[in-house]
Amino acid sequence: MSKFNENVKDLFTNWNTIPNWMCFVRIALIPVFSVLFVKESYIAAFIVMIVAALTDVFDGKIARKYNMVSNLGKILDPIADKLSQIAIVVILIVKFWSFDGPLKYLLFLFIFKELVMVIAGAILLSLGMRPVAAEVWGKVATVVFYTFMITIIAIGPSGALVGVWFIKALPMPVIYVMVVISAILAFVSLFGYAPGFLRQIKEKKNKK
């Protein structure tokens, strides 16, 4: 059996845990959120997004507190994050496509970053290694991303909560600042993964 096949088989050892099922739920909510948003059911989409974000917050805490950390969870959690973030970004690109200015192009930076992460993870798996674990900046970037994007969906132009209890839409300059800050943190986290990725590649070469 190849190293890759052994690595994949090992992922499913003790996989049936509450945190992993929370990741499955988060992934399943992605198309639900997308359909609701496209149909302009913004409040329902906003609620689904909150639920998905909460599963992201609590799955890791439950795994560590109750000793439910699994090899699959270490891979599944970032995959769920990436799929969720890409779905949110695509939805926002569609939403802001008709707006003047570079905002929609800035949002493409998030997709580029996630594609780089996916390719890097696939390279490590193909070599029989595990993708690099999330660093502090990766966690910070994820929290900021969800916070800012949920805010934009809630009270951005045509947001879910605009007009409710006299809530007004955020001005576009504020939205630009939020997107730029989130993009900067996303790429800081990307570069933070680089040393671990290169170290694993180097160790692999030295073993040959």
Mind describing the biggest β-sheet? none
SSE series:
HHHHHHH
- The value of Rg in angstroms is 19 Å
| Helix content bin | over 70%
Secondary-structure class: mainly alpha
> How many structural domains can be distinguished in the coordinates?
1
Q: Any idea what the shape is?
A: globular
Labels describing this entry:
Four Helix Bundle (Hemerythrin (Met), subunit A), globular, 208 residues, mainly alpha
Description:
- There is one protein chain.
- Helix 2 runs parallel beside helix 4, helix 3 (about 40-65) runs antiparallel to helix 4 and helix 4 packs antiparallel against helix 5.
- This protein has one domain: CDP-alcohol phosphotransferase transmembrane (TM) domain (Four Helix Bundle (Hemerythrin (Met), subunit A), Up-down Bundle), CATH 1.20.120.
- It is an all-alpha fold.
- About 75% of the residues lie in helices and about 0% in strands.
- It contains seven helices and no strands.
Overview in brief:
The chain is mainly α.
Provide the fold topology:
Elements (H helix, E strand, L loop, with lengths): L2 H9 L6 H21 L3 H24 L5 H26 L6 H24 L9 H20 L16 H36 L1
Helix pairs in contact: 2-3, 2-4, 3-4, 3-6, 4-5, 4-6, 5-7, 6-7
